[in-house]
Specification:
This protein is mostly beta strands. Among the domains are: about 230 residues, Sandwich (Immunoglobulin-like); about 200 residues, Immunoglobulin-like (Sandwich). About 5% of the residues lie in helices and about 30% in strands. The protein is built from four helices and 33 strands. The strands form seven sheets. The protein has a seven-stranded mixed beta sheet with strand order 15-14-12-17-22-19-20, with no helix packed on it. Strands 3-6-11-10-8 form a five-stranded mixed beta sheet. The longest helix is centred in the last third of the chain and has 13 residues.
Length: about 675
């Protein structure tokens, strides 16, 4: 989407379109002091021990509360900018995930993020999620969220559709998704499975929801039988994910594996030297409240979708729920769990002293050996774990974690000097000699007992070619879709909406053809995959697809041009013309060295085919030991509730909320090919 990005001070008058809401004026990010407050870490962010020595059953409340996101000392006035300043201890109203202890403590929280839930492989957890979100006049936050009722969304009151430009003030739908988790569809937290606060005016729940109508809560079951990795959970309600996550509903869920972790002392110890860095961008108004600024990426079609924008672009960077924090670090190695929790912003991270990152893990677990890299590109939803070595640095050294990724990525607007070009600061303080430093190098064996199972050379049961499409108008994008199909779109030849029907236990090759203008981080629920290669294609390919649509009479978002199950000249199903004739005659680009592990989210660049090998089997099952047709998960993923299975989608939240998501189901038999 080549849309000019405006980062100027903006005033949004919601009343101008007949909305009973307040006026918000942008507080420019440049006015917010940088590196003045410490990074919220363990103690500021709750840690729930959900392992065998802790509490595998616990409550998570979805609540509205206040958090100290902006600097504690306040923000000075700036008469030239017409800004009167903010006093000390000005909190922001947010939504988030709270534990029982958080609620008992009350008060303004140092972070809006939910707890770090520490799970252990082999110990099942059973969190109970309670939707206690206020709404209407009882909620500050809901009045700040421009829910677009012209989109296909959760719609508890069943009154959305074209022309409904009203601000929604009814009961707030929500559902937590365990991102990266191997769980039954019932507990996956898919977009259809939302539910409402208890005793709301309607007892409606989404299809496949584990919540009883009107109950306001549901208990989920997470087996935690997968390999160690950094998962997270966040809201996934249909059509309002971008707003619920923006309001604060996100939390970390690392899984440790006591059998297969590297030997004790190999890696920095949790939680003192093993620290999450959850990076998000936000905007604030001049009252210090969160601001989903519609002017951050101008609305291309306000007469169609009044409050949807292609990508929200914040002008303030927030880490662990704090604007531009600093972290005191000893001269030793630290392990950081990077999570891009932004709606749409990508990050190209570097350290301004030139030190490398030693990447030790991808979304779904450890690499075989650490990979040294001068920069780390991370898209929304992705996670990487990396060692940063401060060992040889003098006391008082200050290092800035910087960002250079354009937005939209990779060809949009540049980062802004002094704001979005920086993330946080590290300050070197005195060493605690009582704790031994670690010595992680590129030679460190991270997987002594369980090297990564390589599935890249497996002969796939099915090859699919699927497209990433933008549905455009004369003014700009209307929506984005997968394989030219809307979320609830039904393709000819299928009785339902699910065109992807893999066999459980099978391995498939998906070739994702990005014919849109920007990169998309594609996320697969349940299954993990490995990136095989990326390859550029000629610009003529876009014309070839347009010709195919025209020849078959298929319009935008109405499905692929040809029968889905018929193999094309490349031997791929999916209903698209073969991409082979359009591929550039260049060597295939392998994944970046630090991408060479199990992934559940990966960046698909414009003008490229990204090939991923997906396997619906636990990641540590050896090649040849799979059992196609039989689940080797500790549950049966073909067991649907209300017909609901899993989804795959773009993790730019503004995209997935406007059709860039498709449901899929697993089955015991292979999907037929013609």
């Amino acid at each position: 989407m080549k849309i000019k990005i405006s980062m100027m001070s903006a005033v949004i008058l919601l009343v101008a379109v007949g909305i009973a809401g307040a006026q918000q004026t942008l507080l420019p990010g440049a006015l917010i002091p940088k590196f003045v407050d410490p990074l919220p870490v363990a103690g500021d962010i709750s840690v729930v021990n959900a392992g065998p020595t802790g509490t595998p059953a616990f409550n998570i409340h979805m609540k509205e509360f206040q958090a100290q996101i902006l600097p504690i000392a306040g923000i000075p006035a700036n008469p030239a900018a017409g800004f009167a300043g903010l006093p000390a201890n000005t909190p922001s109203w947010v939504w988030g995930y709270l534990t029982d202890a958080n609620i008992a403590a009350g008060g303004v929280r140092p972070s809006y993020l939910g707890p770090v839930v520490v799970a252990e492989r082999g110990t099942q957890t059973t969190p109970t999620y309670i939707n206690a979100l206020p709404y209407g006049v009882d909620s500050v936050v809901q009045q700040l969220l421009p829910i677009d009722q012209t989109l296909d969304w959760a719609d508890p009151l069943n009154n959305s559709g074209p022309g409904n430009f009203a601000l929604y003030s009814g009961p707030q739908p929500a559902v937590p998704h365990i991102h990266g988790g191997e769980v039954l569809p019932l507990y996956d937290g898919g977009p259809d499975a939302w539910w409402l606060p208890v005793n709301t005016i309607t007892g409606a729940t989404g299809s496949g929801s584990p919540a009883a109508p009107g109950a306001g809560q549901a208990t989920f079951i997470y087996p935690n039988e997968q390999q160690a990795g950094t998962l997270w959970f966040h809201d996934h309600a249909f059509g309002t994910t971008r707003l619920n996550v923006y309001a604060g509903m996100a939390a970390l869920y690392p899984i440790f594996d006591p059998v297969n972790e590297p030997p004790a002392g190999t890696l920095p110890a949790f939680p003192q030297y093993d620290i999450p860095l959850i990076i998000q961008d936000r905007s604030f108004d001049t009252n210090g409240q969160i601001f989903y600024n519609l002017a951050s990426n101008p609305q291309p079609n306000p007469d169609v979708h009044p409050f949807w924008i292609p990508e929200f672009i914040g002008d303030a960077i927030v880490v662990n729920g704090k604007t531009w924090p600093f972290l005191n670090v000893e001269p030793r190695q630290y392990r950081f769990r990077f999570l891009n929790g932004s709606n749409a912003r990508f990050y190209n991270l570097k350290l301004n002293n030139g030190a490398p990152f030693l990447v030790i893990a991808t979304d779904q677990g450890y690499l075989n050996n650490p990979v040294s890299t001068p920069n780390l590109i991370i898209g929304p939803g992705e996670r990487y774990e990396a060692i940063i070595d401060f060992t040889a640095l003098p006391l008082g050294t200050r290092i800035i974690l910087t960002n250079s990724a354009r937005t939209p990525f990779p060809g949009g607007g540049k980062v802004v000097n002094g704001t979005t070009d920086r993330i946080m600061q590290f300050r070197v303080v005195a060493l605690n000699p009582a704790i031994t430093n670690t010595n992680v190098t590129v030679a460190t064996n991270l997987r002594q007992n369980n090297p990564i199972v390589n599935i890249k050379n497996v002969v796939p049961a099915i090859k699919r070619q699927l497209t990433l499409n933008e549905v455009a108008s004369a003014l700009g994008p209307l929506e984005l879709v997968l394989n030219n199909t809307k979320y609830n779109g039904v393709v000819t030849g299928f009785g339902g909406r699910e065109t992807e029907q893999p066999q459980v236990g099978a391995t498939e090759l998906w070739e994702i053809i990005n014919i849109s203008a920007d990169a998309h981080p594609i996320h697969m629920h349940l299954a993990s995959f490995q990136i095989v290669s990326r390859q550029k294609f000629k610009n003529a390919a876009k014309g070839g697809y347009a010709t195919a649509y025209a020849a078959t009479g298929v319009v935008d978002a109405a499905g692929p041009p040809f029968p889905y199950l018929v193999r094309n000249a490349d031997g791929a199903i999916g209903g698209n013309p073969a991409i082979g004739p359009y591929l550039q005659a260049t060597a295939l680009a392998p994944p970046l060295p630090y991408e060479n592990g199990w992934k559940d989210t990966a960046i698909m660049y414009p003008g490229e085919v990204t090939r991923i090998m997906i396997r619906w089997t636990p990641t540590d099952i050896a090649v040849g030991s799979e059992t196609p047709g039989t689940s080797q998960y500790p549950f049966d993923p073909t067991q649907l509730i209300g017909g609901v299975g899993y989804v795959w989608h773009c993790h730019i939240l503004d995209h997935e909320d406007n059709e860039m998501m498709r449901p899929y189901v697993l089955q015991a038999t292979p999907q037929p090919q013609i």
